[in-house]
Design a protein that fits this description.
Helices cover 64% and strands 0% of the residues. It has helices at 6-11, 29-33, 40-49, 55-70, 77-80, 98-106, 108-139, 146-154, 161-164, 168-183, 189-199, 206-214, 219-229, 239-251, 257-266, 275-288, 293-302, 311-326, 330-339, 348-360, 365-374, 383-395, 400-409, 418-431, 437-442, 451-466, 476-479, 482-488, 494-509.
Length: 510
C-alpha cells in the first residue's frame, strides 16, 4: 500500500513517525484533504497506531465508528455544521477512549436525575391507568351531587390529566394536591374534617388550607376568609402562586408568620395582587421615599389597601400634593407615612378639606404642616368633630388665636372627647386646682393627661403633705414621672405614693 504524504499526515493530526500505509483505492487525495475516514484497511491500521496517541486522530476514529454503526454516508463540510442531532456515544461497557470515559463520568449526576425523572414518569403512567376507574365511579353518582363527588375524585392522588381529559382548572387542582402532598404534607385528616364541617371549606381547597394552617390560622380565621373572600376565591389561588407571595412578604418586606397571618385575615385580597407588576413596584415606591425595611413592614400591615392603588397615577400624586400644599420635606413626609400609613389611601380632595378648615380657623400652613408631622391624624379627622372641639375651646374663653396656638402645640386635642375628657378635666382645674383658661393656654397638654391616674392623685398628695391648698397648682408637677414627683416634690418614697394613688382609685370606683 502507498505511504501517506507529509500533507496527509498533517491533515490527519499525526506525527511523521506515525505514518501508515493505505490501499490507495478508496482513500483518495480529495478524501484525505476533507479528513474523511472511509477505508476499512486504513481504519484498522489507524486504530492500531493511535492506541497511545493523538486526540485528533482518536476523535476521527470515533466519528468513523458512529457512521459505520448507523450506516450513514459521511457528511460533507456544508452538512457537517447544519446537523441538529448528535450521534449517540458508545455504551459504557465498550472500550472507548479515555476522553469519552471522562465524559461519561461527568454525566453521571445527569443520569441519576434522569433515573429519578423516570420513576416519577412511571408513577404518572400508573396513575393514568387507574384514572379510568375513578372517572367511571364519578359518572355513576347522582346528578345532584355530581360536582361534589367530582371534587372528591380530584383528591385522589392517582389522577392524571390525559386519562381523565380534565379541564385546565381541574388539572391545576390535582397538581396542587400532589405537589403539596409531596413537599409539605397535606393537612391532617382530623383537622381537615373539622375545618370542612365548621368553616365550610371545599375539598378542593385542602392544599391552600394546608399552607394557611402552617401560618397558624385558626378556625375563626378560616371562617372569616371563607365568608369575606369566597366570591373572589382567595382559596382558589394556585399553590405555587401562594408560596411565592408568602415568601415575598416574609423575605423582602420582613414580616413574620404571625404578622402574615394577621395581614391575611385583615386584608385577604393582598394575595390576589400580581407579584411582579403590583406588589414589587409598591415596595420599590416605599423604598424610594426613604422608608426603612422595619418601617415598611409597619406600613404594609397598617395600610395593605395601598396595593390596590397605582403608584404612578394615585400614590405619587398624593405625596406630591402634601409636599406642594404643606411644604414638608422628604424626611418629614417619610415620618408622616410611618405614623399614618393610611394617608396613602386618602384622596387629595379629602385632605384639602381638612387643610382648608384649619386655615379658616386661623392656623397658618406652617403650623398645619408641623401639626401634620407630629400628629398626621389631623388629615383624617371629621370636619364636624373638629368643629365641636374648637367650639368648646371658645366656650371656655379662648380666642381664635389662642385656639390656633393650642391646636398647633397639641394637635391631639382634636381627638379628645368633650363630655368624658375635656369638660371634666377643665372643671376640676377651675374648682380644685385654682386654674383658669390661661392655664390651659400656657399648657394645653393638660387635656391629654389622665384625670384619675395623674391629675387628682398628685394634687391631693401635695395638699396632704403641705396641709394646705396649693392655688394655683403648678403644672410642672404634672409633667414629671412618678418617681421624680415622689422624691423631689412630695419628699416621700415611690411605693408610699403608689399606695396612696391606689386608695384614691378605689374610692372613685366605689
Amino acid at each position: 500500500m502507498p505511504e501517506l504524504t507529509g500533507r496527509q499526515v498533517r491533515l490527519l493530526g499525526l506525527k511523521p513517525q506515525d505514518r501508515v500505509q493505505t490501499c490507495g483505492r478508496c482513500c483518495r487525495r480529495s478524501a484525505v484533504k476533507r479528513k474523511r475516514v472511509t477505508c476499512a484497511a486504513y481504519r484498522s491500521e489507524l486504530e492500531h497506531t493511535i492506541e497511545q496517541g493523538e486526540a485528533p486522530a482518536r476523535s476521527r476514529l470515533l466519528s468513523a465508528r458512529r457512521r459505520q454503526q448507523h450506516q450513514e454516508p459521511p457528511p460533507s463540510r456544508s452538512r457537517l455544521f447544519r446537523r441538529t442531532q448528535t450521534p449517540p456515544l458508545p455504551e459504557p461497557e465498550e472500550k472507548a477512549p479515555r476522553a469519552v470515559g471522562r465524559l461519561l463520568q461527568r454525566s453521571q449526576p445527569i443520569k441519576t436525575a434522569s433515573n429519578g425523572l423516570t420513576r416519577v414518569t412511571d408513577t404518572v403512567r400508573r396513575a393514568q391507568q387507574d384514572k379510568g376507574v375513578a372517572i367511571n365511579e364519578a359518572k355513576q353518582t347522582n346528578a345532584k351531587h355530581k360536582q361534589s363527588d367530582r371534587r372528591n375524585v380530584l383528591n385522589n392522588p392517582r389522577f392524571s390529566q390525559e386519562a381523565g381529559k380534565l379541564s385546565q382548572k381541574d388539572w391545576q387542582v390535582t397538581t396542587d394536591w400532589l405537589v403539596t402532598n409531596m413537599e409539605d404534607g397535606l393537612l391532617d385528616d382530623r383537622i381537615w374534617r373539622e375545618l370542612v364541617a365548621d368553616c365550610g371549606l371545599d375539598p378542593c381547597e385542602r392544599p391552600q388550607a394546608t399552607l394557611f394552617h402552617q401560618l397558624g390560622m385558626t378556625k375563626a380565621d378560616f371562617t372569616k376568609l371563607v365568608t369575606s373572600r369566597r366570591s373572589n376565591g382567595l382559596l382558589q389561588l394556585r399553590v405555587p402562586t401562594i408560596k411565592n407571595k408568602l415568601r415575598f412578604l416574609r423575605d423582602e418586606i420582613g414580616l413574620s408568620n404571625e404578622e402574615v397571618r394577621k395581614l391575611l385575615v385583615k386584608c385577604p385580597r393582598i394575595l390576589e395582587h400580581k407579584l411582579e407588576s403590583n406588589m414589587r413596584p409598591h415596595l420599590e415606591f416605599l423604598r424610594s421615599q426613604g422608608i426603612s425595611k422595619e418601617d415598611i413592614s409597619k406600613v404594609v400591615q397598617s395600610a395593605p389597601q395601598m396595593f390596590q392603588l397605582s403608584t404612578e397615577n394615585t400614590l405619587q400624586p398624593r405625596l406630591l400634593f402634601l409636599k406642594d400644599q404643606l411644604g414638608v420635606s422628604p424626611e418629614a413626609l417619610a415620618k408622616i407615612l410611618v405614623k399614618l400609613p393610611n394617608v396613602l389611601t386618602y384622596t387629595t380632595q379629602f385632605m384639602q378639606e381638612r387643610i382648608d378648615f384649619l386655615t379658616a380657623n386661623g392656623m397658618p400652613l406652617e403650623d398645619i404642616a408641623k401639626a401634620a408631622v407630629a400628629h398626621p391624624q389631623v388629615l383624617h379627622y371629621s370636619v364636624d368633630r373638629m368643629q365641636e372641639k374648637l367650639q368648646y375651646l371658645r366656650e371656655i374663653g379662648m380666642g381664635q388665636q389662642q385656639v390656633a396656638q393650642s391646636i398647633s402645640r397639641l394637635p391631639q386635642l382634636l381627638s379628645l372627647d368633650i363630655r368624658h375628657n375635656m369638660r371634666p378635666k377643665y372643671n376640676y382645674l377651675q374648682s380644685q386646682m385654682g386654674g383658669s383658661v390661661q392655664t390651659v393656654c400656657a399648657y394645653p397638654a393638660y387635656f391629654s393627661l389622665s384625670l384619675l391616674q395623674r391629675i387628682v392623685p398628685r394634687h391631693r398628695y401635695v395638699q396632704m403633705v403641705r396641709a394646705e391648698p396649693v392655688h394655683p397648682f403648678p403644672m410642672n408637677y404634672l409633667k414629671m414621672s412618678d418617681s421624680k414627683f415622689a422624691s423631689h416634690v412630695a419628699y416621700t418614697s415611690l411605693p408610699r405614693f403608689e399606695s396612696f394613688k391606689a386608695d384614691i382609685l378605689t374610692g372613685f370606683r366605689s
